[in-house]
Amino acid sequence: MITFKQLEAIYWITELGSFAAAADRLNTTQSAISKRVQELEQQFSVEIFDRSKRTARLTEKGQEILHYAKSLLEERDNFIERISSSQVLIRHFRLGVTELTAMTWLPQLVKEIKTEYPRVSIEPEVELSATLFDRLMDDTIDLIVIPDVFNDSRCVSVPLKAVENAWMGVPELHTGEEPLSLKELSNFTMLVQGTRSGTGLVYGRWLSEHNITPSKTIHCESMLAQIGFTVSGLGVSYLPVPVASQLVQDGRLKHIPTQTRLPHVRYAVLYRHDRSSNFKKRIAEMAQQCCDFRTFFAESR
User: Fold this and answer.
1) Domain count of the fold of the chain
2) CB–CB of 143/160 below 8 Å?
3) Which of 4, 52, 123, 242 is the most interior residue, by most CB within 10 Å?
4) If 0-12 CB within 10 Å is exposed, 13-18 middle and 19+ buried, where does residue 252 land?
5) Whole-number percent of the chain with pLDDT over 90
6) Is 295 among the domain residues?
7) The CATH number of the domain where 29 resides is what?
8) Alpha-carbon gap, residue 223 to 139, rounded angstroms
9) Is the per-residue pLDDT at 90 higher than 60?
């Protein structure tokens, strides 16, 4: 008889690349995972994994079994969700966010999810936008909150609020108060986020549209590093106004006025159309209600 534990073992071995990793993910031992696979192989007299390889690689028949395993596991999750009230729903929820969300309204969202779905285990991930999008497409994460830069028909996109950014630097870097042209601004070293950052993509395109090529750039893959580099006086940078407000009040940073203002960065919730569920729709609704980039490390209400 086929069991969901056997199907889960095959799914996670394939997703994570090894029996040991699947055992960790399913909170069991490697020998238990091996036994589940062997039981299924013996039942149908097939080989699911090619054991001549060093990594867990599916045979042709194993690929076919994985296809049906994914479908059955998805149907099981949908069945459980539909017959369960929110108070008894049990599932693992893989939530991906970028740094800004993690540092502002994520605590409130987590509180709301735990209140409505107390038995859901939240597994948060903080990554760059492109990494989170790739993982969503690879089905290793359930739902992501990122800048709205990926127009992909495979995804449900739920709009959230926008973030105000401004050019900033240490006070001694620019002492004038007259707004600078973008050409004048480009004479400074610019601290920018890379192309795997949603915000980096938005402002990279924006600078290109205005035919601005900085004299020098320093790329930061982390927003915290970008803030640190800016406070260190290494150049000017676009920073979220709410996050940097205290540094401005303390006199460690200042707004650099420009003739052309930066566009706001719109955020969105994304999840896959083929993995849609009432649960994810509800989480997206909660995200819309909780989304507030104005307070740094907002306290749960």
Assistant:
1) 3
2) no
3) 242
4) middle
5) 61
6) no
7) 1.10.10.10
8) 26
9) no
